[in-house]
Amino acid sequence: MPDGFILLVSDDPKKAHSLAHSITCHLPCRVAAPGQRRPAGTVLAVVLDVALDDPSILASLRGLMSHVRACARPCLYLARDLTSATLARARALGASRILPPFTSRAVLSAALIDLVQLCAAERAREPGVQIRAQAVEACALVTGLFDAAGSGRALSHEDVEAGTEIVLDAISEAGIQAWLETIWSHQSEVYQHSLSVAGHAAIFASVLGFRRSDQHRLARAALLHDVGKAKIPRAILVKPSSLTPDELATMRRHPAIGADLLAAQPGFDAETLDVVRHHHELLDGSGYPDGLQGREITDLVRLVTICDIYSALTERRPYRAPLRAAEAWSVMEQMGGKLDAALLKAFRSTVTDLRTASAA
């Protein structure tokens, strides 16, 4: 049996104690209430023992279940009833198996052991299953965020946090190369770019020795940096040739649009808004939208700008082939005083020997 623990999520503390005792006879078990932070360590499977008729409970489970799906871990739901609404909600959360009310502890334990063993066997047969699951889940979360931004709905903070954690976990476990190759197997280039920049930001933060919390800040800002493109006409975003001056002017509105969009919603910090608005600013003042220069551009913005430019150069575009890593690096070196020289030098170590993800 692989190392790790069963995570039991329950809204009934008394029942949770009894269930945990029964599970622990076969597998290590930890208990959390809905909305409580996930315990550190490797989750082998999740047991959900919660009523799914409360929207606040469902919302509190979103981040946890995104992590479960991204890790390609099974989820067993202990149903309180078998109505079609309950079953649909459980499946939407990602339940691998649903047990009816009053299921015996012996059946529960046997089902859990079976799920964990099947999951371990699948991962042994196919080592790439987790990175693909992470990419699929991250793409789904970013798609939802952009769709919300495009339609004027509030962005889900749970989805932002879950997406950021998935990127950090994927980079930590599989590395930037595997992450890039996997996300570029999908087709939506706007979302791919956001995930690519977030991946580069995650590895860059690691190389710079950032603490996990600071890695999270940087990766989260990178994930959201292009959210303003949700309001740019798709015909401009995917145009297979150079943009006209008017189209270019429209495209260059996306940083300000994105920052205004997030500022109109509660919960987005000033650092994130700064990155979203200013990631196209350059140290010599030639960037946009505000023509900032030198010390007016914060370190977090400088970091994301480097990741953004490198990602853009090495990604496929409708109007050009991707550059190889060495070619992209040469272009960035030739930008001279537009980029932070010290950070650019540090960034080089993250892309040494890196293949072009979209061409691999």
Automatic annotation (TrEMBL):
SUPFAM superfamilies: HD-domain/PDEase-like (SSF109604). SMART domains: HDc. InterPro entries: HD/PDEase_dom, HD_domain, HD_GYP_dom, HDIG_dom. Residues 168-360 form the HD-GYP domain. Transmembrane segments: none annotated. Residues 190-313 form the HD domain. It comes from the Bacteria. This is Ribonuclease Y. The gene is rny.
